[in-house]
């Protein structure tokens, strides 16, 4: 569907697909749900970090001096969209333990489905970092667009958005508003229902991660 758009990546790894199916199952309880979200974050992070820059440094092996690759370039920042985005942070931190963490608090109005901001704090200087904005769900796209608007207003430039499940409506809105942002998607679903929930989806990601409702 998005063939040819190199800024939109739908992850094809079978482990990611299998784990997302487990999340979709309404019988999957909070404990397991949370653990699987973390595993998916790590697997998706592995895909999303493929283009990290390398530089060569000399290393003394027990036998000789060798020129070996290490990660170079901008330092990372992970920015979860609260609440549900928090579920993805642990998995990404396993890959990037030194990453700084920002937080953007947004909730969707149940009637209008518009995002409302309640908290924002970003690591400074954000403009020098490679930023990963994370949220399990990209539904209408309102929350992702608002979060990235905010990050750009504060100087953020190099931004990747990661979600576990996306609706085509959200991908289109995000792509239109922020064509420079790379979007990593675990699974692309059919679309939104009348309450702007993703179908087939997995329900309310925040409630399932935190055991609320
Ligand atoms: C959910 C989800 C996204 C947003 C997606 O959060 O985690 O942030 O909805 O919907 P959108 O693409 O239509 O904006 P929610 O507002 O339910 O808040 P929560 O994470 O606190 O549960
Ligand atoms: N937010 C969720 O948690 N789930 C959806 O399906 C849509 C928005």
Q: Overall 3D geometry?
A: globular
Largest sheet: 9 strands, mixed
Number of strands: 13
Return the domain count: 1
**Protein structure class:** alpha/beta
Count up the helices.
Answer: 6
Which CATH class?
A: Alpha Beta
- What is the N-to-C order of secondary-structure elements (H for helix, E for strand)? EHHEEEHEEEEEHEHEEEH
Summarize the structure.
The protein has helices at residues 14-24, 30-48, 89-95, 142-153, 168-177, 205-210, and strands at residues 8-10, 54-60, 65-71, 75-82, 100-101, 103-108, 115-121, 129-134, 137-138, 158-166, 182-188, 191-192, 198-199. The protein is of the alpha/beta class and 213 residues long.
Looking at this protein, list some descriptive labels.
two-stranded antiparallel sheet, alpha/beta, Rossmann fold, binds uracil, binds 1-O-pyrophosphono-5-O-phosphono-alpha-D-ribofuranose, 13 strands, 32% strand
């Amino acid at each position: 569907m998005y063939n040819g758009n190199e800024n939109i990546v739908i992850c094809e790894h079978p482990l990611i697909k299998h784990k997302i199916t487990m999340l979709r199952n309404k019988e999957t309880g909070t404990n397991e749900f949370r653990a699987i979200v973390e595993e998916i974050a790590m697997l998706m992070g592995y895909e999303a970090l493929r283009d990290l820059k390398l530089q060569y440094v000399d290393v003394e092996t027990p036998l000789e001096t060798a020129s070996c690759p290490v990660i170079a370039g901008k330092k990372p920042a992970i920015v979860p969209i609260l609440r549900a985005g928090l579920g993805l942070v642990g998995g990404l931190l396993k890959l990037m333990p030194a990453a700084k963490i920002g937080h953007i608090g947004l909730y969707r109005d149940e009637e209008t489905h518009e995002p409302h901001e309640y908290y924002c704090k970003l690591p400074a200087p954000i403009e020098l970092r490679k930023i990963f904005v994370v949220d399990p769900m990209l539904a209408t796209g309102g929350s992702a667009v608002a979060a990235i608007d905010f990050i750009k207003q504060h100087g953020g430039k190099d931004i990747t958005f990661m979600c576990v499940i996306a609706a085509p409506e959200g991908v289109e809105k995000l792509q239109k508003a922020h064509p420079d942002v790379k979007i990593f998607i675990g699974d692309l679903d059919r679309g939104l229902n009348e309450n702007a929930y993703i179908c087939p989806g997995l329900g309310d990601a925040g409630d399932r991660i935190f055991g609320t409702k």
